[in-house]
Amino acid sequence: MRVKDITQFLDSMAPPAYQESYDNSGLLVGDANAEIESAIISLDVTEEVVREAIEKGAGLIVSHHPIIFGGLKRLTGKNYVERTVMLAIRHGIALYAIHTNLDNVSHGVNAKLCEVLGLENTRILAPKAGILRKLVTFVPKSHTEEVVSALFAAGAGHVGAYDQCSFRSEGVGTFRGGEGTDPFVGVPGERHEEIEERVEVILPVDRTKTVLAALFEAHPYEEVAWDLFQLENELLEVGSGMIGTLPKEMSTEAFLAHLKKSVGGVVRFTRPVSDTVKTIAVCGGSGSFLLKNAIAAKADVFVTADYKYHQFFDAEDRIVIADIGHFESEQFTIDLLYDAVHEKFPNFATFQTAVKTNPILYL
């Protein structure tokens, strides 16, 4: 197995194009073509996790949090980040992070937390805009079906639960081939008119290269006319947080006890708003930016982490904020990634780290 066999699969699971602008997901250390015999899955990368990889002979560590977040200007071992990276390089261990891109997909970190809490009817809490593109191209009518089928096969044309979606309109295209051209129709040096169809399809940004390659392969013209537009439409399958419902209503007290038992650690929460709760919003990691979305979606409880003292006042008796801790809210990501890699590569040795990387301890 090569490093890139694993990382390309993980990229398909949560495309890097879906990560936040401040993030640093992807292969951070190592040779993508290096051969490896095993990998370790962890929430964080620390020196202890790298030493664990050395002991197990693992050539790759897949983590949720990137060890390199900001720029590294030097490697002198003055802090744990530099020491961890240096240790990994010294022993030829690749480091790969799958962070906010895994947060932002509907089968990612938040979906796993919803599963642990037993939530049903889940959906993205704050769908993202700006990651859809519209491709417009012009095809001779005789080849429209061939080109459109190629675009669909490459991942274009999905709108919600529908696929193979396109729009076509007929018109007349004109062109004149210059010296040395070999036009599909017409004669070089003479203006030609051709009945063409304008074809429009929507695609997610991460499929752009694949869809364009399919267009150029299937289109009969030497020079393909095409336009690509960024759309502000929301992609409902991609975004921050999730929201779902409990199988049946629970008292607020019972739900908080269920939450604590499910994730461990300590739950910090605001005072109950009502006697019972049913609709639960979640965001693994630091999710305070989604409070307004949770309230607008009429969630009874917002489960997240990293709330500061004064931010708890923002509940304003409209919702219960339940802070379960950063590690606790994302710990199940290890299971998620392990199961995905093991299912895809059942004969490849994959291990869950035995190191508890949570830097916070509780009495």
UniProtKB/TrEMBL annotation:
Coiled coil start-end: none
Assembly notes: Homohexamer.
Cellular component terms per the entry's GO annotation: cytoplasm
Keywords in alphabetical order: Metal-binding
InterPro entries: DUF34/NIF3 (IPR002678), DUF34/NIF3_bac (IPR017221), DUF34/NIF3_sf (IPR036069), N-reg_PII/ATP_PRibTrfase_C (IPR015867)
Binding site for a divalent metal cation 1: 65, 103, 326, 330
Annotated residues for binding of a divalent metal cation 2: 64
PANTHER family in UniProt: GTP CYCLOHYDROLASE 1 TYPE 2 HOMOLOG, NGG1 INTERACTING FACTOR 3
This protein's name: GTP cyclohydrolase 1 type 2 homolog
GO MF, any single term: metal ion binding
Family, as annotated: Belongs to the GTP cyclohydrolase I type 2/NIF3 family.
NCBIfam families: YbgI_SA1388
